[in-house]
Amino acid sequence: MSRIRLTKVKQGNYEHFIMVADPRKIMKTIVMPEPDKRQEIQRPWSEKRVQEIAKYVVSKVNLAEGYKGEELKKEQWSSGIIPNCPLLNLKVRDRIIKEGDEYFLEIFDEDTDLFDILDGQHRLMAFSEKYIDMDFCEENYDMGFVIFKTLDRNLMREIFMICNNKQEQVKPDVLIYLMYQLGIVSGVKESNFKLVDLLNTENSSPLYHRIKIGGEKIRGGLSATQVMKIINNCGFLKKLDTNDENKQMRAISEYILAWYSVCPGAQESNHTLKKISGIRYILFLAPYVYDYCLNKEIKWNEESLKSVLRTLNDSTGCFDLFRTYGLDETNPFAGESMTIAKAESDGSKLSRATTDFNPLG
Fold it and tell me: Which residue from 34, 76, 206, 351 puts its CA 20 to 30 A from 313's CA?
């Protein structure tokens, strides 16, 4: 028999206990249901998910893998830390013993069906003998547990529902920020994040404090991952032919500021140019504007670009795009592909050049 110290928690008319124990020992007291089968008190469990967590625990998960489309550094191995506590329902009465002001849980060697798992089944099952790496058996590893006593089925279902029904998926802006801070983003993705961060933090940038990085809430703000995607796909950085994020930031800032100066109403907070669709349109136009400046030997600065954008408007009427559309009209900003197609169509009307003149100086 083993005795584990408990801490009592009181919430209204209900009480439960906090316990610290070895999850491998706790799993020996639990009957595992079949994977992917309906359960009475919670969802079916996935064997694949359990296997993934078991690998994570023994530091055999490369954090730089599994992010489709990401260019990441390699061999950033998992720490194996699982800080959140599985929730268990004690099925047997009279196993929690009070001694003075202290509480203890008694577990006997023959116990094989002592707990129901209310929440955290994948985390806990990862420590079963079937899934945990045998080389890990000698490691010291404790977890926190929340222990309820002989709950009825409906209360167990309610607890599972409350723990899981309102969970929000981690937003991409938060993920890319954390991945960058962990140092597992590299190459173009790392450079683009630095550029977007500069656009958000430099006072001279028209996007100063308007990009949502790390999940912060900004009214009318732009998603960092969406801005990164636009910058990566629009082709403008290839035209600049520089890897210096500060130069890239200044070039983009001068260009957007020119748009804000010459386009009627662009200073209004709800103008399309202040939204991601407007940013997408003008940045996909940027390579064409750059080629025009190259051909005409026009310097890339706000004042010169104002003149270029007025010429663009004379050819395409693009300033009129940023208006309110009726229900029977086609709004070029209604979808990503439509916006890009419109930008490329308008951009193709500008002259191209192949001289050696560098608009950036």
Answer: 206
